[in-house]
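Give me the 3D structure for GIY-YIG domain-containing protein.
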Amino acid sequence: MRLEPREFLDRLPLPSLHNLKEKWFINLSGCIIPKKIQTVLQLGENFSVPSKNNIRVLIEFLKNIESNLFKIKPHKILGFRGIISPILHNFLSVSGLNNNISKRLNELISFTYRFLKNNKNIIFTKADKGNMTVALSKNDYISEVTRLLKDPETYIRIPKNPINTLTRKTRELLMVWKRKEFISDQTMRTNESRKVSDNSNEEPTNWFVLPYVPNLSEKFFSLVKKYNVKLAFFSFNKLKKFIRVQKDTLPKYFNKNVVYKIFCKDCDASYVGQTGRKLTTRISEHRNHINRNNNNQSVITNHRLEFNHEFDWDGVQILDKERILNKRLNSEMLHIHMQKNGLNLKTDTECLHYSYASLLDNFKQH
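Predicted structure for GIY-YIG domain-containing protein (366 residues):
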């Protein structure tokens, strides 16, 4: 089945943010939750809300566009970059949230943030069955989870995560089956490209995957047709930040796959980097580099030695979380350019297209 998002949306009735739907939201917290919070959270964890942060919108678009460019012919890439820059500039130069629904949603989101800040014993999660949003008392939730975890008929404590061992043994078993010709080589190639058609002359469909932003993403439909690609969207700003599986918050320095920023304590200098490892591991390397007896260049160490300055190792800022390396490297490059007094080498942004630099410079001035 093929669905064109624009045609689908045109047929939808106008959404209402004033009415509660039956069996969409249930309050088991024992506290009074304002109706307007219930009306927005009843929409579910995957409901996409507009972002008020234009810098984040720009970074998300640019890093995803760059990660998709290999899908069009190399000689057309420069022209494509030149076309999309004015589109992004026009969107960012005016309010992207100029419709009543977007404004209303952001008002509700802000109100929900304030409500949860003042009512820390209330949590929202998804029902075990169906898509109902459930409000619970945090203390009651923890007590019930603790009871289940202590029940030996429900859970058994294991001393070590077995996933790596199971994966290794599965791979070994598959190799044995392959040697004995129980399975073919083709079955072993898990990354083999799928055939789109029996017609060998037919080219596979290339998909541009971009973040969905109202009043912006739709402008790319006519654009990508010229490049023989199709559009698919994802949301980077969902209600999942409120409605989620209740797990302990991961400490900042234990996060992986991040773009980070380190600030100098004694001036406005800063450094932007990226790592796929735990942030604490990478920051420790920056911090301890000054003690090494080698000639490897480090702009952070050079700054510390030349000016006798120190960095705020406890105040490192996470700028982006991105699992895919190519996107993370693009995000790093964009954030490096956004610095007002960055210590990064010029070579770190030499691949940044001049039209992107112009867009980013508009935000550096504010």
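The radius of gyration is 25 Å. Let me know if you want a second pass.
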